[in-house]
């Protein structure tokens, strides 16, 4: 189906009639035009493959996260009921969520850079079908946060302990929703797009006691269409979640959510479901002209497909490395300043979608990634490293912190200890005599009673990642600097 530019940008933008500003007397200076008065590109113009490729490269970079979200939602739409895809990944039909009952397993390949500090939930939204009710149990003083994002990966709801969110039911609605808010709904959050996602994160200590204590709480974490709202708290025993067969199981890297050869076939649908931000109407018009022409001209579509393949290889693939995202945080670490608040920052949005998608907003979480040690060498299991937090200089948080190790694909490295991070959740960490805390990052056990502080590394390249949930001002402002990653000689 040809790309319907008119349906995306409105009749005023795509009209081919001259605007009043262009119909001036000879020699008269045209007056500034409103966006709606600007003529759209002329349909049927003889576009060249080179021009299509140039526009295609820009569109691929700009829309990569949007297509990514679209394809993830497509997977969730196939779920017959809430459950665990392949026995490890929480999935649910659209406008519902599924919860784990323990930490995320290393076998999952749904999203890179996960953490092993929280019990995760996941659900994708289709807010054009119905508004969605999200339940919040009484978590007491336990850290929790629900990340709620639109199709651009921007957060649109403030739900978490740091916001003082009360237990109860909350409503998520799409841009066109004009219904009545039922009694009992605590607040309404409106998304800029109908496609969205919800990711509950509930902190859990790495102890048998806390695993037991958290179960009745997470059983109350649910989401469902507004049409199913009764005013009463609904529950599900998530520890009994059924396994849903995963047809795409296997592979070392993340599921390929963006396939270059299919990108421009899907893009018209993605643009149609993602209204332009103010000022983006011109980009929609320019890209739309090329998509319309390519729908009728195989040579143009081939140019677009080739541009997608080249941009994936030349630009997107490099964004996967932590060193190529965020800003310098000191001692070789990088951090993000606008995660889940990307707005017009196409680079950060796409880089984050590639390397660590679904990052929380900075006041909820600050992230620090490192690929190199203090000498500037790539982190590798052939070496041993120490990360020492001086006394009184653990990450200053009101929630929790952790140091996570990822393999080359930004997933957990399976090991005999089943340990992928160390931090607040670990109650057996041993401090040094001076009160500092040293974490030993290496392939082999460190010995000498240091195993409690050992973060097992693979034999090859890896990366480190510090999470600071509910960060204090010193982290947000940049006054706190992560410690150096020191190679052990």
UniProtKB/TrEMBL annotation:
Residues 1-23 form the signal peptide. The keyword Cell membrane does not apply. SUPFAM superfamilies: VPA0735-like (SSF160935). InterPro entries: DUF1214 (IPR010621), DUF1214_C_sf (IPR037049), DUF1254 (IPR010679), DUF1254_sf (IPR037050). Pfam families: DUF1214, DUF1254. Residues 95-225 form the DUF1254 domain. Keywords: Signal. The keyword Magnesium does not apply. Residues 364-473 form the DUF1214 domain. It comes from the Bacteria. This is DUF1254 domain-containing protein. It comes from Mangrovicoccus algicola.
